[in-house]
Each structure stands twice: as C-alpha cells, then as structure tokens.
Amino acid sequence: VIDINTLYQDSGCFTYDPGFTSTASCESKITYIDGDKGILLYRGYPIDQLAENCTFLETAYLLLYGELPKAEQYEGLKERITKHTMVHEQMNRFYTGFRRDAHPMAVMVGVVGALSAFYHDSIDIKDPRQREMASIRMIAKMPTIAAMAYKYSVGQPFVYPKNDLDYSANFLRMCFAVPCEEYQVDPVLARAMRRIFILHADHEQNASTSTVRLAGSSGANPFACISAGIACLWGPAHGGANEAALTMLEEIGSVDRIPEYIKRAKDKNDSFRLMGFGHRVYKNYDPRAKIMQKTCHEVLDAVGHHDDPILKVAMELERIALSDDYFVQKKLYPNIDFYSGITLKALGFPTDMFTVLFAIARTVGWIAQWMEMIEDPSQRIGRPRQLYTGAPERAYVPVEAR
Ligand code: ACO
C-alpha cells in the first residue's frame, strides 16, 4: 500500500501553492510588474509613457519583438496587419449559426478557435514563418471578428474594415458605422480606445496568459491556444470584473449611499466586495487605473456626459475608500476595472462587449508570451503536480459485495 506522506517525501522538492501566489511558471522578458510600487513596464517602458505616446501597433511590435519599431519596421507591421484584417467570407456563415442573443465571448471562443480550420499554412508551430503568419492573422482579424459579433447581436449588417484608419479607429467604425449614414470617428474616442487597448495588452502570467502558455506547451496550434485564453478571460474574476464594477456603481446610484456599501465591503459576514478594488499583485495604486481615470474624464466630456452621476459615485467612493483604515491596511486600491466600465459604456459599448475589447488587446500579449515560450529551447510541456488527498490504495470490491 502506498503511503501518501512517503510518496511526497520521496519525490524530492515538492511545493504546494494553490492559486500560484508565489510560484513562477516561466522566465519572461516581456512585462515587469512591481506590485508594491505600482509599476508596470512593457519591455522596460513604463505603461503611462506608452499609453500616452504609442499607437497600438507600435505597442504590439514592442511586445512581440522586444524593441520599439523604427519607422520602416512600423510601416512594415502596419502593412502586414492591414492586409489581413478581412475574415474569410465563409466565416460570415458562422455568425448566422449563433443565436442573436449569444454572449459575444461565446462567439469569440468559437470563431477564433475555428481560424485553424481556415489557415492551414499557419498551424505548424515548428516553422517560424508559420508562427509569424498566425500571429499577424490573429492580431489583424481580432477587431473584425469582435465587431462582427457585436453587429450580429444588434441585427445590423457587418461593416468591413477600412484600412486607411488606424487599428482603434477602424474597430470603432466597424462597430458603430451604419449603412446610408456618414460616420466619422471622433479622435478623442479613438485615442481612448487606443489607450484602453494598450493598457490591456499584457499583464505577465495572469490566468488567461497562463492558460495560453499551458495550452501551447503541448504543441497545440496558436489559434486553439488563443481561443483557450479567451475562454479563461471570460470569467468574472478576470476579464469580467469591469462589468461587475459598473453594475455595482449603478446599483449604488448616488453618493449618499456609498457609506452603506463601504460598510458591507468591510463586513466579514457579507460576501460583498468593492468591485474594481484590490489586486493580487498590485498592493499600491494600479498604474493602469490612473490612466483609465483620466481617459474616463476625457470620454465623458467628449460625449457630453461630464455630469455623469455614476462618475461622481466612482470618484467619491474612491476618495472615501482611500481614507478608510480597512482599505489602507489591506492595501486595496482601485484597479484598471474601476473606471473602465464607465468609459466603455460612454464609448457606446453594451456591457457584454467589455470583455471582448479586453480580448482584442490581450491577444497581442498572449501571442508575445506564446512566441517567447515556443522559442525557448528549454520549453517543456506544462504539467503541474497535485497534492493528493483522496483514498489510499485499496482493493477492488465486486458490486454485490459493496
Ligand atoms: N473589497 C473588500 N475587501 C476586499 C476586496 C474588495 N474588493 N479585495 C480584497 N479584499 C479583502 C479580502 O476580504 C481579504 O480580507 P481578509 O484578509 O480579512 O480575509 C483581503 O482583502 C485580501 O483579499 P484576497 O481575496 O485574499 O486577495 P486576492 O489577491 O486573492 O484577490 C482580487 C484579489 C480577486 C482582485 C480581490 O481584490 C477582489 O475580489 N477584488 C474585486 C474584484 C476585482 O476588482 N477584480 C479585478 C481584478 S483586475 C483584473 O483582473 C484585470
């Protein structure tokens, strides 16, 4: 009979770390976070500088290739991306197969996973050219696929990409332009969309990125891996938190009700938490939240909602929480999701599209991380162990004797 305790002692070093709070699963040169200081760097560059100065494709180049692109490298990437923004016409039929009230994340998981059935020349992961091709295709097509999911859900015709627009403006147009009406992308809204994409592009080994790496470690094709990442991102504790934060702010409704919710958040017997507050890694202000707050103000001004009562609730809630001992001692600060829900709503997106926007941006980070893993010569299949707590070995008992 196997003695469980002996088994674990005999297997050499064994760590049990539920939730991977202190176990690194890989080496990476892509993103650095200092949670205590509230620092986030992509390839060494502070997130606020990138969000302020870069286009999304410049950021994508940086994450994928390790350096900011020179002018010709940037033009080259833009050209390759715009060449691939269309999806195969046959893919249109996928959408009509879904119910119109399907959650767009369900549509994304299906459609992105199905890309591997269309592009047989980009699924051999041993071939660097095929890996690159798959990456370009996914980054290029993700906004088109997402906008089509949105258009289908609201019963409007698909809008094809317009490749002389930049990545973010093109996406807004594919979502909000309607036939027979002139549509001009508001530059303030396009800048906001660009910043939102940059802020969400990578965040080291979060749950969805770890999912992409784990799926990819078996040699699965890149489209399947990104589809797995989208499925993981859909969870409310991950990509779904911005929707939850907005719902909470709307439920609070007015500043005089804030103390009631603060009290609930502090009550050990109440499962309620302030959504958009706290983070597993940041024990300081999430640097993305600061940029998101600024972007939120700009968007609300641009769409004429500067007196939005929900923004007032958010700002007052932040002020009260940041001067409350409970939140100070537990180092609970606003995270990126606190202001992003209000911003995305003001941009015109329904709540079920929020996580989809996150997925468009994070596709770049997922791909950069997947590439880094595949190109690492020491890469092995990911195979976590477990701490077995079940029955010890025992003999089979025939059914009549049980
Ligand atoms: N409101 C009230 N109390 C909180 C909150 C909150 N938002 N977050 C954490 N706490 C308290 C916990 O009750 C716990 O208290 P205790 O020590 O007395 O038991 C303590 O702070 C530590 O919390 P943990 O859950 O252990 O922290 P963890 O790192 O596991 O969780 C998480 C981080 C999930 C983000 C958490 O802060 C949370 O639930 N926040 C609200 C949801 C949210 O905003 N998620 C978005 C994350 S960002 C992203 O995914 C892009």
What does it look like?
- The protein contains 18 helices and three strands.
- Helix content is 53%, strand content 2%.
- Helix 6 runs antiparallel to helix 11 (222-233) and helix 7 runs antiparallel to helix 18 (354-375).
- It is mostly helical and 402 residues long.
- The protein has helices at residues 4-10, 47-53, 56-65, 71-83, 92-97, 104-114, 128-153, 167-176, 187-199, 207-217, 222-233, 241-252, 258-266, 287-302, 309-322, 325-329, 337-347, 354-375, and strands at residues 31-34, 39-42, 45-46.
- It binds acetyl coenzyme *A.
- Acetyl coenzyme *A binds at residues 237-238, 241, 265, 273-280, 330, 332, 335-337.
Question: Gist?
Answer:
With 402 residues, the protein is an all-alpha fold. The chain has 18 helices and three strands.
